[in-house]
Amino acid sequence: QIKACLFDLDGVVVDTAKYHFIAWKELANELGFDFTEADNERLKGVSRVRSLEILLEIGGIELDEERKEQLAAQKNENYVSYIRKMKPDEILPGVEDFLNQLRKNGILIALGSASKNAPLILKQIGLTHMFDAIIDGNSVSKAKPDPEVFLKGAEALNVKPTDCVVFEDAQAGIEAARNAGMHVIGIGHPDNLKNADFVMPGFEDMNIDKLNFN
Ligand code: BG6
Ligand code: MG
C-alpha cells in the first residue's frame, strides 16, 4: 500500500532544463566554446558542481577550484534570473491534478530534488503548500544515485521506504530510488529510463489507481 509519493522537481514538475541550458550555454560561449542541447542532456539530474565539470570537459578546459566556484556562482545567478520569472502556468500538464488527487486520498507528498533553487521554483509556481516535506540540494550531501535525498524524504514523512513511490526523469534518480528500496515511476521515454516499475511520458494519464505495486 503506497503511503507517500516523492517527486523530483526539474523535469518532473517543471521543465527547467531549458533555463539551465541557456545559462550553461552562455557560460560556455563566454569561455570560448559551444554547448549544444545534446550536451545539456548529460546534465539532467546532475549536481551544479558536477555539471560544471562536465561542461569544462566538453570545452577541454581545466581550471582550479576557486575559478570553478566563481563560474558555478555566475551560472547560478544567470539561471536564477530566469526562474525568478517563472509562473504557475509552467507546471507540467497533469501534475497539479495528480497532487490534488493524492491529498484527497491521504497520500503524503514530498519533494526530493538535487537543486538548491527548489524552494524558489516551488514559490514561483505556487506549489510550496502542496508538499508535506521538502528535501532539496540544501539538505543533502550525497548526490543521486545515492538514496540520501529520498530516504530523508521518507523519514520526514515517517513512512517506510517500501511504502513510497518516486517520480523521476533522470536515470541517476531512478537508481537513487531503487537504492532507497522504493518503487519508482519514470517520466520520459523508456529507452532512457531503465529499471523503473514503469515509464510514462507525463502526468496527463496518471491517477492513483496506477499506484498499485505488489
Ligand atoms: C537537478 C537538475 O534537479 O538540479 C540539474 O536536473 C541541476 O540539471 C541540479 O544541475 C542542481 O540544481 P541547482 O539549481 O542547485 O543548480
Ligand atoms: Mg530531474
Automatic annotation (TrEMBL):
GO terms for biological process: carbohydrate metabolic process. Substrate binds at residues 8-10, 24, 43-48, 51, 75, 113-117, 144. Binds 2 magnesium ions per subunit. Its cofactor is Mg(2+). The record marks 113, 144 as: Important for catalytic activity and assists the phosphoryl transfer reaction to Asp8 by balancing charge and orienting the reacting groups. InterPro entries: B-phosphoglucomutase_hydrolase, Beta-PGM, HAD-like_sf, HAD-like_SPP, HAD-SF_hydro_IA, HAD_sf, PGP-like_dom2. It comes from the Bacteria. Mg(2+) binds at residues 8, 10, 168-169. SUPFAM superfamilies: HAD-like (SSF56784). The active site is at residues 8, 10. GO terms for molecular function: beta-phosphoglucomutase activity; magnesium ion binding; sugar-phosphatase activity. Keywords: Magnesium, Metal-binding. Belongs to the HAD-like hydrolase superfamily. CbbY/CbbZ/Gph/YieH family. PANTHER family: FRUCTOSE-1-PHOSPHATE PHOSPHATASE, GLYCEROL-1-PHOSPHATE PHOSPHOHYDROLASE 1-RELATED. This is Beta-phosphoglucomutase. The gene is pgmB2.
